[in-house]
Design goal:
heterodimer, A: alpha+beta, Heat Shock Protein 90, 5-stranded antiparallel beta sheet, globular, B: alpha/beta, Transcription Regulator spoIIAA, 5-stranded mixed beta sheet, 4 helices
Chain lengths: 137, 123
């Protein structure tokens, strides 16, 4: 059965204050799906990491958080996209400790650990899209 | 939004009131590095009870603050990390390594006093 998409929020990411806005709005929306308090914190943290990735490497982009249902499962989908320089070596980027920027190199692999599903697509010169999902247990 | 920093005896207490942007965190770092010297502080407490997320940047900045204040002669204790925040940090793979932590402000002050007593006792 296809995943159904319900309400969503879209946050433009241009600076570090937008990272805070994205995780706050994402948390508020996800709370409607019935996540536990600790899972809401985990979702907000994952949003923070992918939004920070946009600010650090692409300068600007957007984060879209959507409530989803699949059969009887409810959850949340987070899509972080940018039209930045893209990532040449996705395997390295997903390895802990790899960083070309100011970060710890923990952002993307860390976000993957926090969520149930994680996918990244990128092309050099045209940008990066991170899609991740978490389901209500 | 600037974090208010209070002085209590020879300690500085930074009490975070709401979510902080990266810029706010860097502002806190710079304020504390300056104020430790200005007030000749021996201890710093950063109360993060109000924070609902400690991501990689926030963790790295707290760690940097602890090391910087140490170089200026003051111990830093992070207090009030919420249980959900601690869980998310562990799953994300973040550590505060050898930075001192305590459950709350009261425990943090007790820890600082204890450390100061120990260092005076060893002289």
């Amino acid at each position: 059965m296809a995943v159904n998409r319900d309400s969503h929020v879209q946050v433009r990411i241009q600076n570090s204050a937008d990272i805070v806005a994205a995780r706050q709005q994402g948390r508020a929306l996800a709370s409607q799906a019935g996540f536990s308090h600790s899972n809401l914190t985990i979702i907000a943290t994952a949003i923070s990491e992918v939004a920070r990735n946009i600010v650090e490497y692409a300068k600007e982009g957007e984060v879209i958080i959507t409530l989803i249902t699949d059969a009887s499962k409810r959850g949340v989908e987070i899509v972080a996209s940018d039209a930045g320089p893209g990532i040449a070596d996705l395997t390295s980027v997903m390895r802990d400790g790899f960083s070309t920027g100011k970060g710890l190199g923990i952002g993307l692999p860390g976000a993957r650990r926090l969520m149930d599903e994680f996918a990244i697509a990128s092309a050099v010169g045209s940008g990066t899209v991170v899609t991740m999902k978490k389901w209500v247990a | 939004m600037a974090v208010p920093i209070l002085k209590q005896r020879h300690h500085l207490i930074a009490s975070i009131q709401s979510a902080l942007s990266d810029q706010d965190l860097l502002g806190l770092r710079d304020d504390l590095a300056r104020l430790v010297g200005q007030h000749r502080a021996l201890g710093v407490i950063i109360d993060v009870t109000a924070l609902d997320v400690l991501d990689s940047f926030a963790t790295r900045t707290l760690r940097a603050i602890a090391y910087m204040t140490k170089l200026r002669g003051a111990e830093t204790v992070i207090v009030g990390i919420q249980p959900d925040v601690a869980l998310a940090m562990v799953q994300l793979g973040l550590t505060l390594e050898d930075v001192l932590t305590a459950l709350d402000l009261e425990e943090g002050l007790a820890l600082l006093d204890q450390r100061l007593e120990e260092s005076h006792g060893s002289q």
